[in-house]
Amino acid sequence: MKISINKDWTLFLDRDGVINRRLPNEYVRSIHDFEFLPGVLKVLNEFSKIFGLIIIATNQQGIGKGLMTKQDLDRLHREMLREIEKQGGRIDKIYYCSDLTQIPDNCRKPSPSMGIKAKKDFPKIKFEKSIMVGDSYTDIGFGQNLGMKTILVGEQLKTETDPDSWTPDFILDKLASVPDILQYDSV
Questions:
Q1: Is residue 8 among the annotated active site residues?
Q2: pTM to 2 decimals?
Q3: Is 186 contained in some domain?
Q4: Nearest alpha carbon to residue 3 among 145, 133, 184
Q5: Distance (Å, rounded) from C-alpha 13 to C-alpha 140?
Q6: Is position 36 within any domain?
Q7: Which of 42-46, 98-102, 142-146, 159-163 has the lowest mean pLDDT?
Q8: Which of 8, 14, 92, 139 is catalytic?
Q9: Domain holding 112: CATH number?
Q10: Which of 56, 61, 136, 152 is least surrounded by CB atoms within 10 angstroms?
Q11: From the CB of residue 91, how many other CB atoms can be counted at a distance below 10 Å?
Q12: Pick the catalytic residue: 8, 16, 164, 185?
């Protein structure tokens, strides 16, 4: 089974573990800690040609814990975007939640908050024509809470359990494998 997409579709991506290497039990605090995963820059270039919008939605509670500042994160994202654009790719906007997990009604995935903000900024987003790619079941919950197709990727899948019965539409080893399940329709 493949997902038929065209330029009307939006791609939502988690960051750590999808775009860059996740640091075990640690936070990516600066560009020095940041390492693109294999094939990501090439596939982002490809996605830029086929998706109408590409959005990053990422939980970043390292800010809430005081391990980094919003300015640190903004600097890291500027450098990340510069490299993506240098390789012919694009990210239309980055949304992040710095709330701590224990804060009630926080904006962290699986909450749909970041997706709702994206829709306000980009009214043409149709969640039923959107795909969420993440490396955790909370990413899948985020996508499903908004009615998106969902793809779970990454190495930790062998050990992570799904506490909330979120079942992804697809499970792949990495972001660079996503084009294998897409069918491009011209509209």
A1: no
A2: 0.94
A3: no
A4: 184
A5: 11
A6: yes
A7: 159-163
A8: 14
A9: 3.40.50.1000
A10: 61
A11: 21
A12: 16
